Fold this protein.
Amino acid sequence: MSTYAPSAAAPPAAAASPYAAVFIDFENVYYFLKNHYLDPQDPHDYALDLVRALRDALKRELGLDSLVLNAYADFDKIPTGPQGPLYLMGVSTRNVLGTDHKNAADMQLCIDALEVLYTRPAIGTFVLVAGDRDYIPVLQHLRRQARQVKVVGFRESVSGDLLQMLGQEHFIDARALLPAERLQALEDHRAARLRQGEEMRRLREQGLVGVQSAAGRQAAQDVASRLAAAPAEEEAGPAAPAPSRASAPARPSMLEQLLQEPPATFAPVRRITRTDERRVLEYLLLQVQKFASQQATPEIWASPFLRRLTDVLPELPDWERRQLLNQLRDAGAVRLEKREGEPHPFSVILVNYQHPDVRELNPGPPEDKPAA
């Protein structure tokens, strides 16, 4: 009489293991943030926040050490290159060439998950930051091998069939991982862009879009000024004045650009009290003064500035230096704007010279340069 011997590849205690493997469809996360929140500033920063928060939550709440952390994307198509920050978080990047028909990251992710299953028996939990229905077969296979499986994602982008198969208790809402202030910034940006779209629809119905008459241009400028001022009116506290229409260069088809660019305004002003924030602002003002003579406007490219900031705050990790710049933006001291460029768009930093802390550190804008 034969006896059954369990396979050595699937130890009985695998699901109770304290080790996890995390597979991140970074491309999926990036484009969800970009599309759902209507092109926020630097969506890859929010995706990095999500990855960092997930790694920490797995350790803090579930006691899981993430021995494997992989991120998948066609990174050549993602501006500002997130591979460096991911590497510093201990995440291995898998650069997969996408196609017009199918996200190649899906297939590579599944292959790697199965490889870990059969070569790393000590890993008992598999975490997928993805939500496509195509992942159902590999998730079912992992569960049949007595592995615990969890899926992380935004509910709007997660397949209902996948959730039904997995069970709600194994789903982690990505929004719950993002810091509250970062999530609120995304929601505020989306609301502002939706208001712009509604204003565009109303003006189209009135026949004002595309009109090149003086009346049409004046209506476009009035709408742009009103939309730019709207977020500041909703918050308490003083806000930087909107640029004068008289000093602004002529821009044909301004209404069409409203759907392409966020409102050109600073956030509501708050005083900067943290020492590290103030150090970043002081260094930024020095950089603007240094490079102002080399360009037409007093602005600084964001990526080179963050690299130079490493020498000023070497004790901080890369993501904290980025956060400090975001905090200056949220305090109304600076504004980040996108510029078109080759091979990718890039971001620039503009200073609010009406901000009280900016005025203390630098009473005025660079000589012969207009204030942003």
